[in-house]
Design brief:
Layout: H1 10-30, H2 58-70, H3 93-101, E1 104-108, E2 114-118, H4 132-138, H5 150-153, H6 157-166, E3 183-184, E4 192-193, H7 214-229, H8 233-261, H9 263-267, H10 278-284, H11 294-297
Helix pairs in contact: 2-7, 6-7
Length: about 300
């Protein structure tokens, strides 16, 4: 790195400063730094499931599944997540069987022929498109990402997704018109996203009667997607609490054994004496040093 000398004249310093400004301007003109490549910083929400002693809100997970199924599933897959993983978390086993049976999966009959069979809870959740080509053709060349691990695949996680879903705005003055199938969203990298706004007030009728504001829909589906990325987080926290509690109990037992049960053993004094030399050893003051009595070792 260049470190200008304190003896360099101010004229040369100004020359270097002008060169730096010119280089930055050239970078801007060259497109290396562009406003189109930036995005607005996402909000920082308070998610209770991120606290050490909190779990997922299972009612919110159920509502989030409803938002995904009625809104997101039309374009986004979740093909790395089983139907059965919802059982006793968001839905009952019977409910999941009904949801899975709504879709057809390839299978084999008793004679080995290829058939289409109703889905089962042991199947992965289906993709809305047969392959990547059909997905791009249906979305103006854009490929809708799979949402199974979207929370950990995007920097900012749930905060970023919540801001993105609620961040659609009218096109500001001076901005280029978006291409066909695109929308303006300042939270998306590049501002122009290939997905129109999907969540509106009352766009989903919740089963439990919760008021379906757009922010509530986004919050619930973000928590649901956080759960699909970490489906065993509640169990991991529970095991961690048990481990800490067990360690505390064992530490207390060990302290009691060391201070009470072994106290007399640690504080006792063992003295070795030589027959007939007890008084001389006591006077020496070092009861364990037999160097004066070489005849004992011989």
């Amino acid at each position: 790195d260049f470190m200008p000398s304190p003896y360099v004249s101010s004229g040369i310093n100004a020359e270097y400063g002008g060169a730096a400004v010119f280089g930055m301007g050239a970078a801007l003109i060259d497109g290396q730094i562009s406003a189109d490549e930036l995005e607005l910083g996402h909000a920082h929400m308070h998610w209770e499931f991120k606290e050490h002693l909190k779990s997922y809100d299972h009612k919110a997970l159920r509502r989030g599944f409803q938002v995904y199924k009625e809104v997101c599933q039309a374009c986004h897959s979740m093909q790395y997540f089983y139907w059965r993983m919802h059982i006793d978390v968001t839905h009952t086993k019977e409910e999941m069987k009904e949801y899975a049976a709504e879709y057809q999966y390839p299978g084999l009959d008793d004679d080995g022929n290829h058939i289409m069979r109703p889905g089962d809870i042991q199947d992965f959740m289906p993709s809305p498109y047969e392959n990547e080509i059909t997905a791009r053709l249906a979305n103006n060349g854009a490929l809708p990402p799979d949402l199974t691990l979207i929370t950990i695949a995007r920097e900012g996680g749930s905060d970023y997704l919540f801001s993105l879903l609620n961040g659609y705005e009218p096109l500001p003055a001076g901005e280029n018109e978006p291409s066909e199938g695109q929308a303006y969203n300042p939270y998306f990298h590049g501002y122009y996203i290939g997905m129109a706004q999907q969540l509106y007030n009352e766009s989903v009728d919740y089963e439990d009667g919760t008021i379906p504001y757009a922010s509530q829909l986004a919050k619930d589906v973000c928590e649901y997607l956080a759960w699909t990325s970490h489906p065993y987080m509640d169990e991991a926290k529970l095991y961690g609490i048990k481990a800490v509690a067990s360690f505390a109990v064992l530490t207390g037992i060990a302290y009691y054994m060391m201070r009470v049960k072994r106290g007399h053993m640690r504080l006792r004094r063992i003295a070795f004496t030589v027959p007939g030399k007890e008084k001389e050893i006591s006077a020496n003051g070092n009861l364990s040093n037999f160097s004066k009595y070489k005849e004992v070792d011989q």
